[in-house]
Amino acid sequence: MVARTHTHNPQLSDPLALALRPPENETPAARQQRLELEQEQKRVSDQIDDELRKERNDSKKRSKREVKVLLLGQSESGKSTVLKNFRLKYAASQWKAELRSWRAVIQLNLVQNVLTILDVMQDRLALPDPTSANTGPTSFAPGPYGRASIDSTRSDITLVGSRPGSHIILTQKHRLLNLRLSPLRNVEEDLRRRLGASDPEFTFANGDDGAMNGLPGERRKSSREFGVRGWIGALGFPSNGAKKSDEPMPVDEATEILATLQDDIISLWEDNEVRELLRARGVRVEDRPGFFLSDTARVTSRTYVPSDNDVVRARLRTMGVQEWRIILENSDSFGSEWVIYDVGGSRSMRHAWLPYFDAVNAIIFLAPISCFDERLAEDPSVNRLEDTLLLWKAIVSSKLLGKTTLIVFLNKCDLLKRKLQSGIMVNKYMLSFGSRENEVGVVVKYLKDKFKDILRADASEPRTTYLYATSVTDTKATAATLNIVRDGIIREHLKNAEFV
Ligand SMILES: Nc1nc2c(ncn2[C@@H]2O[C@H](COP(=O)(O)OP(=O)(O)OP(=O)(O)O)[C@@H](O)[C@H]2O)c(=O)[nH]1
Ligand SMILES: [Mg+2]
């Protein structure tokens, strides 16, 4: 009978229920003991449930209290730089503790500046030196590290006559510099490995998705762009922010080699022929991300510790989506807890943005307006400004973002100004600009109107939008903008938060 009941009770036919059922010949005392034990177990289980419920509610409340911001824009638009400014201003002690961790990135940026120049020089160096009886570049003494080698078998000598800058003569001095600086190729590899080594998902962007050497006349893509999925892992940030900042930094091999080559790097960058060749080839190293050649003496010193401004200017490409939780220092009021999502901006990474659209209060859209004459690294047929405007159109017309506060930073105004002053004409690249004055204020106003026009024509819903002209490598000016932006976002957030 009992056996039949068990067999016919679907619940008790479950193997787990069968295994846990009370013994059939249980004595009253054993039964009493079992029931007491079960009661205690239930009490503990209920307590755990209560705690979980409380935690869920707390996290819901916290999530309501948190201000969530998504940084969007194409690659190299300045998203990570805005994040850095935000942390510098609102999480200063954490920021300070992390400064030293950026040394390797800045050293890598400087090494890449030098290697870019050496690459540009290679075809000219392959030619015999007309000012010297000594014709073979390999006949020079090796540099201080003795690992140098020069490819003297290049076969493109016949082509170089037609390249821009073919009138510039590089001499023995340049060959020697090239030879002495060639250990930097190993330093580059070493630093890349070191930065990538702590991130199992590190990726080298080489070719199909890297930033373009990018300036007018240069179609080649860089194999130098380097990105990591997480700064924290790659840079080895101190986990508790407690790293002592007055200890000297260890002098590793890269630092030692850079210190030894300091004078050569300065000679290369200050050399008139080299400058002329770069100009002729349209390679504006000084306008590129992560330009540190003007700071060579400081950056190559054995005791170099990065400054705030160095870190803000350092270039480290973002891969995927990085979430930053920032508790604003000196503020316990509403709006002191921020979550900022910093995303990778190149086309192949944009699909990863979507899941964050309905979770954020505000979007800061970075529009690098100095890029009117540049092409996308990932698709050289597309103008970078055009890509930015298309992205903006897609964002404003997205229904998912109907309630999201939109903030636009018309960024890189400093570079825009320099470009316009160097004589590059906006109307050559943007016909609709017409005969307006080729001046930064006029261009900014024109583009602001363009962004507003797109908003009017394509917005899924009318919404609050703020536009600012920025140069986010200028930390002082950006701090002031961020203050206004922060207050605006909090105001909007308060309006929408249910519990207010
Ligand atoms: N001169 C100047 N440089 C800027 C400005 N904004 C950003 N940069 C530089 O441009 C480079 C790219 O900026 P990032 O913030 O890394 O760009 P990103 O949008 O995060 O790029 P991805 O991570 O590839 O999506 C960095 O080296 C910055 O220092 C600016 O307003 N002026
Ligand atoms: Mg980035």
UniProtKB/TrEMBL annotation:
Residues the entry annotates as binding Mg(2+): 318
Comp. bias regions, Basic and acidic residues: 33-60
Segments crossing the lipid bilayer: none
Signal peptide: none
A molecular-function term among this protein's GO annotations: metal ion binding
SMART domains reported in the protein's UniProt record: G_alpha
UniProt keyword list: GTP-binding, Magnesium, Metal-binding, Nucleotide-binding, Transducer
PROSITE patterns: G_ALPHA
Segments of this protein annotated with the region Disordered: 1-65, 202-221
Biological processes, Gene Ontology terms: adenylate cyclase-modulating G protein-coupled receptor signaling pathway
Binding site for GTP: 411-414
Pfam families in the cross-refs: G-alpha (PF00503)
Any one cellular-component term (Gene Ontology): cytoplasm
PANTHER family: GTP-BINDING PROTEIN ALPHA SUBUNIT, GUANINE NUCLEOTIDE-BINDING PROTEIN SUBUNIT ALPHA HOMOLOG
Name of the protein this chain belongs to: G-protein alpha subunit
Organism the protein comes from: Mycena maculata
